[in-house]
Design brief:
43% of the residues lie in helices and 14% in strands. The protein is of the alpha/beta class and 346 residues long.
């Protein structure tokens, strides 16, 4: 685990790095993926993809969000704001998390002399990959690019190739949940101390939905996973579970964000994906939404919501990809497929 300061006050984000692909130390035409994890999971959830990155001429950097191991915890005041702050205070808090992530990327690009996008647009540069609830932080980074210094904005402009939104749930978008939505974390019949462990098993399962092309909420499997494939967590050793899954204050702060900051999340999502000024600042950025065919209902509904918003604006802002057979943790169960899908999104 390594660390990088993201402001002048000593705030840090921890990360793991696959390093420069062998043979690219001279030519330097590799592409870097900066990955942001979801709720209750940490940066090592990407370790299986990282192991395959170098042959694909990819440098893979997985970042721990605030409140997760190695990164600076949120303060008591931050937690209080998430629980009961004003709309302005909650907006400022989300903006700060986005600026921290955007600063991390800028400083990493500078410190490691990452290659810019090539003239033909096929090599170099970087992509920002966000998974599950991590999409909220990534979209806040993109939405707040204009809050960076001119030098940092220039690094983003010359390097940003893709924003890859993997499995964006409704909680990251600030969109409403349907009446049938269910998760162990909001089921008060489940003892409080068991909700997060229950969630990490449930969310890594496979769900067999009806015909998704109908876009009907009635075809979704909301509660009971399928027996078609073993949940991803059962493919983890005890050591991997220990390093990959994290509860504590992080689960609390993430849940508070989803419950009380929907308006702020929605504003950042729409600015990051559809704002003309953002597109002007990041002229070579492509945006893709990746959804597994057997993922949980939250991600299906979230992807449909983005698709509806894209169509309402005339379409063409975002590329959408349904990944056959994939669940919420495609990068763990099918890392080769995940890497292929990521690189095809550049």
């Amino acid at each position: 685990m390594q660390f990088l300061d993201v402001n002048d006050e000593g705030m840090q984000l921890s990360y793991i790095d696959s390093g420069i692909p062998p043979g690219d130390t001279v030519s330097k035409d590799y592409t870097t993926i900066f990955a942001v994890h979801g709720m209750c999971f940490t940066s090592p959830t990407f370790e299986r993809v990282m192991a395959l990155a170098s042959p694909a001429k990819v440098r893979f950097v997985a970042i721990n969000r605030r409140d997760y191991p190695g990164s600076t915890p949120l303060s008591p005041d931050d937690i209080s704001t998430l629980a009961s702050g004003s709309d302005q205070e909650k907006a400022a808090l989300l903006k700060a998390r986005g600026v921290e992530l955007a600063t991390f990327v800028s400083r990493f690009v500078e410190h490691h002399s990452l290659p810019p996008i090539s003239e033909d647009g096929q090599r170099g540069g970087f992509a920002l990959l966000s998974w599950s609830l991590g999409n909220a932080t990534a979209m806040s980074a993109v939405a707040n690019i204009d809050k960076l210094s001119s030098a940092a904005q220039a690094r983003w402009a010359s390097g940003m190739r893709a924003l890859i939104l993997q499995e964006p749930p409704t909680g990251a978008l600030g969109t409403p949940l349907p009446p049938k939505a269910w998760t162990p974390q909001i089921d008060t019949t489940v003892p409080a101390e068991l909700r997060d462990p229950f969630f990490t098993q449930w969310i890594t399962s496979y769900f067999t939905h009806g015909d998704l092309s109908t876009r009907s909420l009635d075809v979704l499997s909301y509660v009971i996973p399928s027996t078609s494939r073993v949940p991803s967590i059962f493919n983890m050793s005890a050591e991997q579970i220990s390093s990959t899954i994290h509860y504590g204050q992080a689960a609390t702060s993430d849940m508070l964000f989803m419950v009380y900051s929907a308006a702020q999340a929605n504003a950042n999502y729409k600015k990051a994906c559809f704002d003309a000024n953002v597109r002007q600042l990041l002229p070579r950025m492509k945006i893709s939404v990746l959804m597994g065919e057997k993922t949980c209902s939250f991600s299906v509904i979230g992807s449909w919501a983005i698709e509806d918003d894209d169509k309402a604006r005339g379409g063409g802002f975002i590329n959408f990809r349904l990944v056959p057979g994939a669940n919420h943790l495609m990068h763990w169960d099918d890392p080769a497929l995940a890497l292929k899908v990521y690189t095809e999104s550049f």
